[in-house]
Amino acid sequence: MKRPKITVVGSINMDLVTMTDQFPVQGETVRGSEFQTIPGGKGANQAVAAARLGADVTMIGCVGDDEFGEQLLSNLKREGINSGNVRRIQNTSSGLANIILSEQDNRIIIIGGANEHVSTDYLDQTKEAIINSDYVLLQFEIPKDTIMYCIELCHQYDIPLIVNPAPAMELPSEWWKKVTYVTPNETEHAQLFNGEQIESLIVTKGKGGAEFILDGKKQLMPAYNVKVVDTTGAGDTFNGALAVRLGEGNSLPEAVQFANAAAALSVQKMGAQAGMPTKEEVNRLIE
Ligand code: ATP
């Protein structure tokens, strides 16, 4: 099977995860139990998912000139992702997610940082990679004008594009017609489409699998029944896998089944990227 060229336009973050038994109230200091830095961001996660599944992946995104930027770049390189286009922004922090976790609750503060510098100018400068892709993957953690520019560019050059509209953000409804597939989860689907069906929709439904439209009819591809450890990054694995399978030239039902299998494997380990499977692992589950 051909090795598809996948370009991911999106965010690159460092997740700063603090675990605690007790949340501090206003003005209080408490002792936490553990701290970890874990590479994340929907863009980088989807790039890692596609690379593990054997695609030729190019990342279009920005990191800061801080220590995290260095680590995030090395992480992409270690995964075999082409990161020559990833720009380091001077005097800017890398994108961060400050996550406070306890057994009962979690609280998250996101800092866009260098992700806010993924501009239309930058996209123009990296256009070569985008227009030479078998599939482009785009999410909503970068500026809105860049998102719209990327959709327009792919439409103009007839490059297949998967838009994962997370976190949910409204776009003028006619823009969805320019996109090959749009992959909201159930919450984003309700927020952005009011439950409405359009031909290009693939709605992920957690352990309920994924719904898509084939020959005008709604189809449900059930999820794989697995023991869940951590669902963080399930959606990202689904999107990365979907792009790889479609980029290889497979049919939509086949690609959705493969994406369900990849995502099911990813929820069996802690952390977004840690559980992302290889192609052999997915094939073993499907057979
Ligand atoms: P997240 O934000 O946790 O990364 P999401 O909300 O974007 O995920 P979901 O719809 O929850 O996306 O899950 C995406 C896909 O992952 C599902 O379509 C399914 O294939 C797989 N998946 C998620 N949860 C489970 C589960 N408990 N068991 C099996 N597969 C799952």
Descriptive report:
It is built from 9 helices and 14 strands. It has 287 residues and is an alpha/beta fold. The strands form 4 sheets. Strands 4-1-9-10-11 form a 5-stranded parallel sheet, sandwiched between helices. A 4-stranded mixed sheet has the order 3-2-7-8. Strands 12-13-14 form a 3-stranded antiparallel sheet. The longest helix is centred in the last third of the chain and has 15 residues, at 252-266. The model has no long low-confidence stretch (mean pLDDT 96). α7 packs antiparallel against α8. The site of adenosine-5'-triphosphate has 22 residues, from α7 and α8.
Which key phrases capture this entry?
single chain; 287 residues; alpha/beta; five-stranded parallel sheet; four-stranded mixed sheet; 9 helices; 14 strands; 32% helix; globular; binds adenosine-5'-triphosphate
The main β sheet shows up as: 5 strands, parallel
Q: Which secondary-structure class do the elements indicate?
A: alpha/beta
Let me know the number of strands.
14
- State mean pLDDT (0 to 100 scale): 96
Looking at how many chains there are and whether they match, the oligomeric state comes to single chain
Looking at the structure, what is the overall shape?
Answer: globular
Radius of gyration over all CA atoms, rounded: 18 Å
Order of strands across the main sheet: 4-1-9-10-11
User: What fraction of the residues are assigned to beta strands by DSSP?
Assistant: 15-25%
Low-pLDDT residue intervals, each spanning 5 or more residues:
none
How many helices in DSSP terms? 9
Q: Kindly state the percentage of residues in helix.
A: 25-40%
Order of helices and strands: EEEHEEHEEEHHEHEEHEEEHHH
The separation of the N and C termini measures 17 Å
Ligands, ions, cofactors? adenosine-5'-triphosphate
